[in-house]
Amino acid sequence: MGPIRVLVSNDDGIAAPGIIALVSALGAIDLCDVYVSAPAQERSASSHAITLGQHITGSPVATQGAIEAYAIDGKPADCTMLALHGPLFQSRHFDLVVSGINRGDNLGLHVIYSGTVGAAQEAAIKGVPAIAVSLDNYKALTPDGFQAGAAYIVAFVQALCSRGQGAHPQLSHLTNAVVNINIPAQDPFHGFYLAHQGSGIVDLNYQQVTKDTVDQKEGHMMEAYGNEQQAKTPNILDQSNGVRTFRNFAGEMRWDMASGSDSWAVKQGWVSITPLGLRSDIIFSQELSKSAHSTHPELIQTVTAAMHIAAHSLGVSVGGTPKL
User: Fold this and answer.
1) Cα–Cα distance measured from residue 27 to residue 66, given in angstroms and rounded to the nearest whole number
2) Could you report the per-residue pLDDT of 304-315, keeping only the tens digit for each?
3) How far is C-alpha 281 from the chain's CA centre?
4) For the chain, percent helix, then strand, then coil, each to nearest 5?
């Protein structure tokens, strides 16, 4: 049984510290042959957007831990789609797609906006097992800040591939879903926690930009992009024809700290694991419920077993899981 082919993507861009740490960690173990198809620049909050009616270019980038890596001038879902359904690499077959490690959480309803989750969802739609990984720390600006979380992801991937015989049969139980993993800001972590998706979300605060406020940037956008972001700022002095300029500043956070939710688990110091389905409709009959969730028992069993194996290898705890 040879190594698994792992495709790595993200939405922070191919040069972001999170993906550098993740690819280096996965590439350091014999289990994985790692390939990278990631945006050439930051594409946060792209959700599942794709590029239509335009050419997409891919530029090779030397990346430690990767056999091949390409910077794609598209969105996160484009990167996954191109790798799985285009001639980017010699083979289009991948056993697993891992998206991340995102700088900043993807908890609660943030998954709706997330390009990190979007890249993983694109793989899941195509029947490829997919994991999305995020770090709840916008201030992590170097790969060192992601190493502790990357070690947990490596342990989890190893655990997924350690059960059963043949070509990693447990991975097949992860299809049609995204395993969404969120890592606390500070280690040491308690361990893994199987959490439900909460409803927490940031309410954005749009403000009109004037010449007096254009330089008042805050948060990770300023830290990450600096002059590049300033160069993209529109000319706010041009107010001809009634043109007005606005910017979405971060507003208030609507927390969901219900016990067992993803936000609660991460704030308690757990690495949260939340399986996300691909369907968005509300199930309104028992017959539909059986059909929609027929594969979920195997999915939860596989994730739970991998959590226990990974936790044992790391010497940490497991919480929130049903009895096997």
Assistant:
1) 6
2) 999 999 999 999
3) 23
4) 35, 20, 45
